[in-house]
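User: hey, got a sec? need DUF2029 domain-containing protein folded
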Amino acid sequence: MEESQPAGNRARSRLVVPSRSDVLLRNFTEVAGGPMGRRSEPGVVSPGPFTVERVLVLLAVLAALAGVLLKGYCRANGWEPPTHFYATCYSDFPELFRSRGLADGAFPILGGQFEYPVLIALVAGLTAWLLPGTGASEGRVLAYFDINAVLLAAAAVVTVLATARISARRPWDAAMVALAPGIILAGTINWDLWTVCLVAVGMYFFASQRLVPAGILFGLATATNLYPLLVLAAILLLALRTGQYRPLLVTGAAAAVTWTAVNLPFAAANFSGWSYYFRFSADRDAGYSSPWFAYNLLAGRLRWPGLSPAAVDLLAPTFLALLCALIAFVALTAPRRPRLAQLAFLLVAAFILTNKAYSPQFVLWLIPLLALARPRWRDFLVWQGIEGLHWGAVWMYLGQVTSAGSSQHNLDMPYYVLAVAAHMVAVAYLMARITWDIYDPTYDPIRRHHVDDPHGGPFSGAPDRFRLSLRRAEHPILPGKDPTHA
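Assistant: Yep! Here you go:
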């Protein structure tokens, strides 16, 4: 078995070879001579200069270059509606640079309203200050995009390396992140890769049981986006299951202190500008590609009653709470404690499916989590293909509704709604497969090889001290009793 230790060399663990452990990749290798041979001893025999991490960095850099090339039309002709939609090269960077005063030296939050958290405002403002001159000339707009694209490429590389190191003996799983079509297509739409990077590094520190650095990274990530709080919620569920609360308290406290330290100066300097992000998020209507927006489109066509903004404000958090309650039920009733990445993926996916808005770049949030939760290339590629179709459908639809563009480039509403539904079904399918893995670890690509939770840090190998029983005949699990050894 590919997980076994080689005789005579116990100091270095043998790596899991994707061409042996994944059926899809094994079939692809037939054109190149088949899977890697058993005598190659990966992780023991030196690969020379082509270490796993160096190859992953190279793949990530090539993917970043491909992402910039996709923006080639706009880089050459400018970002103007509706062509930046039809050329599928839209990015928020040029629009925000021109419309939020960045081109004229205004600093986000401190100098006005900005609909992003403080660390994103800091990145947006500092990268604008790096540009010489003033005004929103074509050259300055292009330079602003390029500077942010380069920095996001660096963030993507760090994300890949962190994912590889979290994966321990499965570093090649990080190739899903390095080559993800979602990152190539959506990596430079907005600054979300900064959040993804901080979460990945935070999970690496947590897996290494460095709880304070992990909390600091989670706090910084929450200062760029609110969804990292769901990773802390996953840690909470594992703390309940194991009865070990110190990891939660230390990590959570470090995250809270860090978030406060980052936000307090901005709040003190301009409270109205600082709080605008929270007001904007609470007051916004249902956004493009959300289930609520798609329903209203169908309702308008079929003459059904639509959803008012007040109804969406009620339904979105209600459905999120219900899904989170179901995930908590899964975490507390499974025969064996779920892995951290599994719970994190389920919670973030639940947020994506119920949120008032779904932007194409939100797919970035799930990619590293899936590489850790369920590293199976077939499911990953099918999901990414569907997300790619949705990505294209969004731009064709936006070109029509925002600019009344040429009809030959437009996408009729039913096909756009179908693309939104396909994206939701694909994410729900991944959630179902991960839930199945939790209840039956023989299907879990990680645990099927007698590994507990390489991502769980202090929870890895911990006994289950609390579990809700689904059968009355079963004896309740008491504190101190490990059901895995019963």
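Quick note: Residues 48-457 form one domain. Let me know if you need anything else on DUF2029 domain-containing protein.
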